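Lab meeting, item 3. Inverse folding demo.
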């Protein structure tokens, strides 16, 4: 049976429990469990870590703890009954543990280790507390350490500050808010202290704050290792002040035997002394520890003859010093002893022994000898602080070791009353003695005796130093052979006080003979009494004593014989008549000097003081004696305080009238003396005296009389010093008065009570009189009043002994009331007045409720005045917080209603006013004293806020009710409400309390909530109906909104334990305030309309609070708003507009739930299921508009959330831009919000500028420009625009847009805007601007013609899966790539932006499963732009650099092609069945636009038949040839004809060897014609095109013949021969060709008539190309494929890699001599193995070419780096087969080389700039580039990326593109072997079966055997693989190439592709083997394929054979072809563009 537990409530798990029983609760060791029920050895309960999981566990596993239970029942709270500090440590460590691990995760390693250290310390301290073995002091100390560490950790981990009192957390309910505020401040301060200076330095709570803390130095002698003495030694330590040249402490003596051990065996390890009472001043002195070593033994250490062994002498040996300044820092920081070694130096000359320490300190090294070793004294030091009693408690070990107390000479700074001391310090200074007939000087020893009056030698009255017992006599050390010895030896004479009077000192002088007997012969003596005749002691000074002769036999049995003699000069003067017949004769020439210093609390050296104490001896001198008391030193007075006071009161009793005033003055002087900090500790002595010893029962009358007389005099007295002194002594005067009266009462049984009361009342009248005087004109009077006010509060306690509380309170009220209540009496006086009030409030009197009622009004009156004037705010706040503190503690016991009411009446209003002004002037605060408050305004604000909160917290219903009733009018109520609401709002907004003061913040919120609940009825009652006041209501609502949104109330962010604590204590205050808000809203009635739309935003902010109840309460308010506006206006447009505005600003500021996604859920809740807005709207008449509004808001939320998500983090620019575009369009199209739209236009523009997308930035700003008109309307200030006319704003925008188009190099877009501006300027006759804009327009035309522009690539990206943001989810986009960005770089960028995304491996449309899955899939491939403006592209004479712009700009249509086979594949000629699937994507907006990417709006799919494909390929090639030839005919290209040679060679050679022959086989076959009758027309068209090609070639050869260089004739001849072969082969297939002759076709060629756009496009784009790259795997290729590619591919044997040039030449010979047949040659069609399907196409072939040496002067050019091939062996011209046997080039080859690279002037021309030479040189390489591209690889390709990233397939490429004009790109402009990313390749490789070697730096290398071949599929691939093969026709085709995007090249020009497809737009830099991917986006240095003119340089030198990494930045934009230049002799022999030289590959001609 389970029963609820009574006492077993809480326990700790002592063994982990993994229960297998049902309902078992798994527990870990150390967890705390709360127990609910028990049953037979089992408990049921929960772990405090997871309170919601309940279960059972065995009782034996739990250690029970005592606990207290509150609120018993299911919701009970259990807390363990243990030391609160232990509980706090436990809970804090649990909280820290989680945060501590996070530090490691966040790499805050330093803090991680610090926190770990502190946690370990806390665990240890907690263990100590729990052990229960600590003393109270230790317990306090441990708690102090604990709290310091807790506070430190909480601060560093960002947790709340815990307010504490006495190391324990306070309960905020038990103290006032002001006190709580102060505790927070002090906790914060202690944390800062502990962080800055460790936690050992703070003063303990409860220590007296006054008086300096003394220091004590512990010196411990560890050992004296300097043992070469071999005699007993005394070591004397003392502290020496170098600056003053005197010793400041007693000596500490250590006696060692000859072995160096202590003489007293008990002292082993106990040789330590404590030098006590060193003040702060002493610590700053130049102190040294001086250690003197005196040996006892023979006269001379090394001379055994000197003196017999049995006689020993004290002899100086050595000295050691240690500078305190060197060690003070070290020992101050340490808590334990630290060792130091002191070297002992010996004195060179004993005469200077007295100053050896000074010589050592001053380093006078001639006067002492350093020891031979480093050893010496080893001492340890430790510095202790604090009072000795405390130190005894804290360090019992030191004192138990018997540390010798070594005092200062003289008194310490603070003289303690119980400190009885009577020490006379005697210094034996020096002596002057006669030689006495000796030949050598004497060895003099002085013996000192203390003798009592009766001649007895006092025992134990001489001390050589602490640490050794006292002696009866002292023998000085002996200085060898010295008649004027200087000893400077200090001894202490601790003579008992009763023996002091009458005692004297005797000094006996002996000569220590070193002869055999070694006797010590007495030869003289001196003496001195200790007290003078007048009773004063020997004065503190040097005394010169007479030396009297005597001899060995003299006895001093009768001391009276010499005591009658003068001891010194002064003595001699006072008694001149000395009989000369005495037995002792003074030695006239001998003197002896001593010095004395008295430190006695009982003896005085002061004559005046003695006279006072013995006043009865001279009654006639009393007046004089009393007058002289002021001149006695303070030390003397406090020593005899009791005696002096007794004497004074005895004199007063003797003759009151005569001596009264003088005694009064003396008393005042003594009382004031005790105010000095040095004597402050004597106040208790005075108190004790008054209580126990004072006996002047009649004194009170005279004291009152004198005091009153002084007060009454203050009005007219000019000098008021004596009056002020009397005022300062007021406290003790009253103590004497009251005590005297009590004594009198006792003695007389209360006689004269009335007279006493009357006299006291009269005295108070006098006090009031003094205070009421106007002191503005008299400074002295001000001081008098100030002194009186300062002392006044101190007398209350005395008065309470004789008067009742009410009577005293009345006295005080009258006195405080008599002060002028005006504030202008002078600032200093104000301060004093308030300080006096403050002390009154802090006094005991104020703690009585009955006195408080009397005093409060006057106190509040003064505070009210100061607050009104804003003066002395800090003091006032202190007084107030004291009052609140007292009232709070009283309120716990009694009712304080009356007092609170007084305070409300007097203070509430002025407090609010003060707070408002403090908050508003927080910057320029008039300070407390003078200009600026020493504490920052924040502290004053905090003080006053806490005062206000204290007051409000004490107020009850009744107080609020009375408050409202007391207002005279509604206006007053309104003013009050506005003030208090404003203060509350400021409290919310200004964050008065720091973030970590959570206790304070929660309490504040609670008080504000309670006050708001009290105030709302007043607001409702007074300001609804007719008297509605918008301002007050608005203020109330604003407060409520701010309140609910407070960070400190958002409980969701707290840990579960904290949340529970807050909810238990306060509940969810947000919900309570929301109910208040809702209630007040309902009370508004018809006035609700006033708050629409103003309150929508704030209320919306409330719904963003993640608290369901708050949202549910708020929803009806929104409905209400819509309803009211609908009623009033018939619509709710305002609600709608405001809601959208506010949603936008709230969400973009990042408001709402931290979990951003949830925010959407929030609005769905707001507009979703019950109690939703939608449901309420359903029932309204306006439901349709309502629902559509809610829907659009919901859609806006989606976009806003995406926007916020992107803006929030480290999201990439792309995402941010996409998001903003999405939002901007929404504002424009769905919610017509122009202002928001314009804001987002500017945000978007800024983002583009940041990302350097200048073109997009221009298009974005253009949106705003289009909204404006050329009108003169005035526009107000908006965003960063100033107020201006619409015309000016539009003009400014226009200029900015033009500027951005210029920066983005889109001048064509800028030109129309220039014209628009020009039109405006012209119409305004603003010719200056017109000229400027026209010049700019002209400059733009120049730029178009002259500046380099890169054609961007375009990529299609699909975002699939529900994890993408709304604006991307399941949509496809086309993106405009960055400059030089190839497919795989783009893919990497996209995967970087979406790190969670998975790359899809195929180009097919995804299925539904992918669209709906919770993941992110990216599908990326390249697409080709299909330009709309074909007109300009078909114009022959338009330069290509103009056309290139129209090819890639303003494009909405993009396409990609996929080849596939329909029906059975023809093995002989696969072109017969090869179809193209062409997909066209149509975008929503043309690119470029306001974004780099736009969504695909529509897809179109068409299939292109094989025949149509062939037609377009041939047509394109014809057009390309025609254009090129026409350029040569018209001398557009002149000089170098390599381009023409290469083009012709490529087409003719390909035609002869396969090229179009394959088309003949495929389509002119009878079977095909009969089976495809519908194709007759197209077959005819193909025939016509072929015939046309022959004609065009004929014209080309004719032009070539005219221009060819003589040395290149053999090439021309060869071309003619091959052309004949081509014609004849075509004749068989094309009947009628011979007949056509030079007919119309020829005419067409010569006239270059215009062609149709379509034919132009085809002709230019699809031209047959011989592909020159060796292929790894040899496989057959059908003729169709080969004809598409346009030529046979020369093969190297499978897998061969040629490493050396010799091998290569041999290979070449074989290669060029062998015709590759269709069956043996491998031909890569454009579609075979599209490399886009590989993420990075493998580089199978790599050419290593010899290098061309580069002149040094060009080597610095970035561009020229690209020209450096890796091998340095020799130049290669391996282009032709006829290489001589020895591998050397033939004459013909040299000629070719000469023509291509040969000597030309610019290279050596000194006038050319380096850049020009660089450009020029680059052309040699360009020209030669293609020739070298044939070389086989010298090195295996290396892979740049090794990541396991799945490749993203690209779309397959188009077969026609082989014959497409772009082929020339590949052959000419360095795109060899690389399909462009913009076309369709993904990875930047060709789409060939064996992709080229060019991508050595970026592509994954595929091993030799793994080139894409037939049937090589990946069985593990998640998608059905597409096959790529050289020989199989079922291959995917690529995207259709763009029309005319490449440089035109004649058909048949071989591309140096690795059997690759020629991608039309592939402007890649590299020839075979070159790094195709230039890092940093510099992949393609030019994209535009132009008609060349020799004058212009190619875009960029080719990067063939570069093994080195490419340059990181794009090269300089070279001049581009396409414009007709002026003639320039330098340029006539420029080589053609790269790769345009004659190409050697064979083509398979049909």
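The presenter then showed the designed sequence:
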């Amino acid at each position: 049976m389970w029963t609820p537990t009574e006492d077993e409530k809480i326990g700790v798990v002592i063994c982990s429990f993994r229960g297998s029983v049902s309902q078992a609760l798994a527990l870990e060791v150390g967890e705390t469990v709360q127990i609910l029920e028990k049953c037979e050895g089992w408990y049921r309960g929960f772990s405090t870590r997871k309170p919601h999981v309940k279960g059972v566990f065995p009782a034996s596993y739990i250690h029970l703890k005592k606990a207290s239970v509150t609120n018993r029942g299911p919701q009970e709270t259990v807390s363990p009954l243990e030391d609160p500090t232990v509980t706090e440590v436990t809970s804090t460590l649990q909280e820290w543990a989680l945060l501590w691990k996070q530090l490691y995760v966040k790499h805050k390693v330093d803090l991680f280790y610090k926190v770990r250290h502190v946690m370990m310390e806390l665990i240890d301290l907690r263990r100590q507390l729990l052990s229960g073995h600590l003393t109270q002091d230790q317990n306090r100390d441990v708690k102090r350490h604990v709290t310091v560490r807790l506070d430190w950790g909480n601060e560093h981990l960002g947790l709340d500050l815990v307010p504490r009192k006495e190391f324990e957390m306070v309960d905020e309910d038990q103290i006032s808010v002001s006190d709580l505020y102060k505790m927070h401040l002090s906790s914060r301060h202690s944390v800062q202290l502990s962080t800055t200076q460790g936690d050992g330095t703070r003063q303990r709570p409860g220590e007296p704050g006054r008086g300096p803390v003394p220091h004590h130095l512990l010196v411990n002698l560890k050992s004296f290792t300097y043992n070469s003495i071999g005699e007993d030694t005394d070591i004397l330590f003392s502290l020496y002040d170098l600056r003053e040249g005197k010793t400041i402490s007693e000596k500490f003596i250590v006696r060692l035997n000859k072995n160096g051990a202590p003489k007293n065996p008990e002292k082993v390890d106990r040789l330590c002394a404590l030098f006590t009472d060193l003040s702060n001043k002493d610590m700053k002195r130049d102190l040294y520890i001086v250690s003197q070593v005196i040996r006892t033994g023979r006269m001379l250490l090394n001379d055994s003859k000197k003196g017999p062994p049995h006689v020993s002498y004290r002899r100086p040996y050595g000295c050691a010093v240690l500078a305190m300044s060197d060690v003070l820092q070290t020992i101050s920081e340490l808590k334990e002893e630290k060792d130091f070694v002191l070297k002992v130096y010996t004195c060179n000359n004993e005469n200077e022994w007295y100053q050896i320490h000074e010589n050592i300190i001053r380093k006078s090294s001639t006067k002492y000898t350093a020891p031979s070793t480093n050893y010496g004294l080893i001492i340890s030091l430790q510095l202790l602080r604090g009072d000795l009693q405390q130190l005894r408690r804290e360090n019992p070990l030191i004192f138990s070791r018997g540390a010798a107390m070594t005092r200062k000479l003289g008194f310490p700074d603070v003289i303690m009353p119980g400190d009885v001391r009577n020490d006379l310090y005697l210094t034996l200074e020096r002596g002057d003695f006669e030689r006495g007939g000796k030949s050598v000087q004497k060895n003099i020893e002085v013996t000192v005796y203390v003798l009592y009056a009766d001649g007895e030698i006092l025992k134990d009255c001489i001390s050589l130093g602490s640490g050794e017992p006292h002696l009866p006599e002292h023998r000085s050390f002996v200085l060898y052979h010295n008649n004027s010895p200087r000893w400077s030896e200090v001894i202490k004479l601790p003579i008992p006080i009763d023996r002091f009077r009458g005692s004297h000192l005797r000094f006996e002088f002996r000569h220590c003979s070193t002869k055999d007997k070694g006797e010590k012969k007495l030869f003289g003596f001196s003496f001195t009494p200790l007290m003078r005749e007048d009773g004063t002691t020997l004065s503190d000074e040097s005394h010169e004593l007479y030396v009297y002769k005597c001899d060995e036999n003299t006895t001093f049995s009768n001391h009276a014989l010499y005591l009658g003699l003068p001891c010194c000069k002064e003595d001699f003067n006072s008694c001149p008549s000395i009989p000369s017949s005495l037995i002792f004769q003074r030695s006239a020439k001998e003197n002896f000097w001593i010095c004395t210093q008295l430190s006695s609390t009982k003896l005085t050296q002061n004559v005046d003081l003695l006279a006072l104490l013995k006043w009865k001896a001279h009654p006639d001198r009393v007046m004089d004696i009393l007058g002289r008391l002021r001149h006695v030193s303070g030390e003397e007075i406090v020593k005899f305080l009791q005696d002096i006071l007794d004497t004074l009161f005895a004199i007063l009793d003797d003759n009151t009238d005569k001596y009264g005033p003088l005694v009064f003055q003396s008393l005042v002087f003594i009382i004031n003396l005790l105010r000095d900090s040095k004597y402050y500790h004597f106040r208790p002595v005075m108190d004790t005296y008054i209580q126990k010893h004072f006996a002047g029962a009649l004194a009170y009358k005279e004291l009152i009389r004198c005091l009153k007389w002084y007060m009454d005099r203050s009005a007219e007295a000019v000098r008021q010093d004596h009056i002020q002194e009397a005022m300062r002594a007021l406290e003790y005067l009253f103590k004497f008065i009251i005590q005297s009266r009590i004594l009198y009462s006792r003695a007389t049984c209360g006689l004269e009570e009335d007279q006493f009361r009357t006299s006291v009342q009269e005295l108070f009248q006098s006090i009031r009189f003094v205070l009421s005087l106007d002191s503005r004109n008299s400074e002295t009077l001000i001081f008098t009043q100030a002194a009186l006010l300062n002392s006044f509060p101190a007398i209350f306690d005395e008065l309470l002994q004789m008067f009742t509380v009410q009577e005293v309170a009345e006295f005080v009220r009258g006195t405080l009331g008599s002060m002028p209540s005006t504030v202008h009496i002078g600032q200093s006086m104000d301060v004093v007045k308030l300080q006096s009030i403050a002390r009154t409030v802090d006094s005991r009197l104020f703690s009585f409720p009955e006195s408080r009622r009397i005093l409060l009004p006057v106190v509040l009156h003064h505070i009210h005045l100061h607050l009104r004037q804003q003066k002395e705010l800090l003091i006032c706040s202190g007084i107030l917080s004291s009052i609140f503190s007292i009232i709070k503690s009283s309120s716990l016991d009694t009712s304080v209603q009356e007092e609170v009411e007084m305070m409300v009446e007097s203070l509430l209003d002025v407090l609010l006013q003060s707070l408002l002004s403090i908050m508003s002037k927080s910057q320029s605060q008039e300070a407390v004293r003078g200009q600026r408050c020493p504490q920052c305004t924040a502290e004053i604000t905090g003080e006053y806020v806490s005062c206000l909160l204290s007051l409000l917290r004490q107020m009850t219903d009744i107080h609020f009710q009375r408050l409202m009733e007391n207002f005279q009018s509604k206006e007053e109520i309104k003013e009050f409400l506005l003030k208090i609401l404003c203060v509350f709002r400021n409290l919310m907004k200004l964050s008065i309390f720091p973030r970590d003061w959570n206790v304070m913040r929660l309490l504040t919120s609670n008080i504000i909530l309670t006050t708001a609940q009290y105030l709302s009825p007043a607001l409702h009652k007074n300001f609804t109906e007719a008297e509605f006041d918008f301002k007050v209501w608005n203020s109330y609502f604003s407060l409520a909104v701010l309140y609910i949104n407070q960070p400190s109330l958002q409980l969701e962010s707290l840990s579960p334990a904290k949340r529970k604590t807050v909810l238990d204590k306060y509940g969810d205050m947000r919900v309570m305030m929301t109910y208040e808000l809702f209630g007040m809203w309902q009370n508004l009635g018809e006035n609700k309309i006033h708050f629409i739309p103003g309150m929508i935003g704030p209320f919306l902010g409330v719904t963003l609070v993640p608290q369901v109840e708050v949202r549910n309460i708020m929803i009806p308010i929104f409905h209400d708003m819509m309803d009211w506006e609908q009623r009033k206006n018939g619509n709710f447009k305002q609600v709608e507009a405001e809601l959208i505005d506010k949603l936008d600003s709230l969400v973009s500021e990042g408001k709402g739930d931290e979990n951003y996604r949830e925010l959407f859920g929030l609005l769905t809740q707001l507009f979703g299921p019950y109690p939703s807005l939608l449901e309420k709207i359903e029932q309204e008449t306006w439901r349709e508009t309502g629902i559509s509004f809610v829907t659009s808001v919901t859609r806006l939320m989606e976009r806003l959330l995406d926007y916020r998500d992107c803006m929030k983090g480290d999201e990439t620019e792309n995402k941010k831009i996409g998001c903003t575009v999405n939002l901007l369009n929404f504002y424009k199209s769905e919610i017509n919000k122009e202002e928001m739209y314009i804001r987002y236009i500017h945000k978007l523009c800024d983002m583009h500028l940041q990302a350097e997308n200048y073109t997009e930035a221009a298009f974005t700003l253009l949106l705003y420009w289009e909204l404006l008109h050329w009108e003169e309307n005035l526009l107000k200030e908006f965003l960063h625009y100033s107020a201006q006319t619409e015309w000016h704003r539009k003009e400014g925008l226009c200029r900015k847009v033009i500027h951005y188009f210029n920066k983005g190099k889109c001048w064509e877009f800028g030109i129309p805007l220039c014209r628009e501006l020009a039109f405006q300027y012209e119409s305004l006759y603003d010719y200056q601007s017109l000229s400027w804009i026209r010049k700019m327009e002209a400059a733009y035309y120049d730029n178009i013609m002259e500046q380099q522009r890169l054609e961007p690539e375009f990529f299609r990206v699909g975002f699939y899966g529900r994890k993408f943001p709304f604006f991307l989810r399941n949509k496809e986009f086309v993106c405009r790539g960055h400059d030089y960005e190839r497919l795989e770089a783009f893919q990497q960028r996209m995967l970087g932006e979406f790190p969670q995304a998975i790359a899809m491996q195929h180009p097919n449309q995804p299925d539904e499963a992918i669209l709906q899955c919770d993941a992110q899939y990216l599908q990326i491939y390249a697409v080709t732009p299909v330009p709309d403006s074909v007109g300009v592209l078909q114009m022959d004479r338009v330069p290509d650099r103009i056309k290139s712009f129209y090819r890639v700009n303003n494009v909405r249509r993009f396409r990609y092609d996929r080849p596939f086979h329909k029906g059975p594949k023809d093995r002989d000629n696969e072109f017969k069945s090869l179809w193209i699937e062409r997909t066209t994507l149509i975008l929503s907006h043309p690119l470029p636009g306001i974004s780099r990417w736009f969504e695909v709006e529509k897809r179109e799919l068409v299939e292109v038949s094989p025949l149509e494909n062939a037609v377009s390929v041939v047509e394109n090639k014809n057009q390309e040839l025609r254009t090129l030839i026409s350029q040569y005919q018209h001398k557009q290209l002149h000089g170098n004809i390599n381009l023409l040679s290469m083009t012709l060679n490529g087409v003719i050679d390909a035609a002869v060897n396969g090229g179009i022959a394959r088309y003949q086989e495929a389509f002119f076959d009878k079977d095909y014609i009969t089976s495809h009758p519908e194709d007759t027309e197209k077959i005819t068209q193909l025939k016509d095109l072929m015939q046309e090609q022959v004609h065009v070639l004929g014209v080309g050869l004719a032009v070539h013949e005219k221009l060819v260089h003589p040395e290149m004739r053999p090439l021309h001849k060869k071309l003619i021969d091959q052309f004949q072969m081509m014609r004849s082969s075509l004749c068989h297939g094309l009947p009628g060709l011979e007949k056509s002759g030079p007919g119309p076709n020829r005419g067409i060629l010569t006239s270059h008539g215009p062609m149709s756009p379509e034919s132009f496009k085809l002709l230019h784009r699809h031209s047959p190309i011989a592909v020159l790259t060796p292929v790894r795997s040899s496989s057959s290729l059908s003729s169709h494929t080969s004809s598409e590619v346009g030529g046979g591919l020369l093969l190297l044997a499978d897998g061969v890699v040629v490493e050396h040039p010799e091998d290569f030449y041999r290979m070449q010979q074989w290669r060029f001599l062998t015709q590759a047949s269709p069956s043996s040659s491998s031909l890569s069609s454009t579609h075979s193995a599209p490399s886009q399907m590989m993420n990075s196409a493998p580089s199978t072939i790599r050419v290593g070419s010899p290098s061309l040496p580069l002149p040094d002067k060009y080597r610095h050019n970035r561009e020229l780096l690209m020209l450096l091939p890796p091998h340095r062996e020799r130049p290669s011209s391996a282009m032709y087969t006829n290489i001589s046997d020895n591998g050397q080039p033939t004459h013909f080859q040299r000629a070719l080389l000469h023509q291509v690279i040969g000597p030309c002037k610019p290279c050596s021309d000194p006038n050319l700039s380096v850049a020009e030479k660089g450009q020029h040189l680059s052309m040699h390489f360009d020209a030669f580039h293609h020739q070298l591209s044939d070389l086989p690889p010298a090195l295996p390709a290396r892979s740049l990326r090794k990541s396991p990233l799945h490749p993203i397939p690209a779309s397959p490429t188009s077969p026609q593109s082989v014959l497409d004009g772009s082929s020339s790109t590949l052959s000419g402009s360095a795109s060899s072997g690389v399909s462009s990313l913009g076309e369709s390749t993904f990875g930047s490789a060709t789409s060939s079966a064996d992709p080229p070697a060019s991508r050595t730096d970026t592509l994954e290398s595929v091993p030799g055997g793994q080139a894409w071949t037939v049937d090589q599929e990946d069985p593990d691939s998640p998608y059905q693989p597409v096959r790529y093969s050289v020989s199989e026709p079922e291959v995917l085709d690529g995207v259709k190439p763009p029309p005319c995007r490449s440089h035109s090249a004649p058909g048949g020009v071989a591309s140096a592709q690795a059997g690759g497809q020629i991608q039309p737009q592939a402007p890649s830099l590299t020839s075979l083997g070159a790094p195709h991917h230039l890092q940093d986006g510099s992949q393609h240095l030019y994209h535009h394929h132009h008609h060349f003119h020799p004058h212009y340089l190619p875009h960029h030198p080719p990067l063939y054979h570069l093994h080195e990494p490419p340059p990181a930045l794009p090269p300089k934009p070279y001049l581009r072809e396409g414009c007709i230049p002026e003639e320039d002799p330098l340029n006539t022999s420029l080589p053609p563009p790269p790769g345009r030289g004659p190409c050697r590959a064979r083509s398979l001609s049909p």
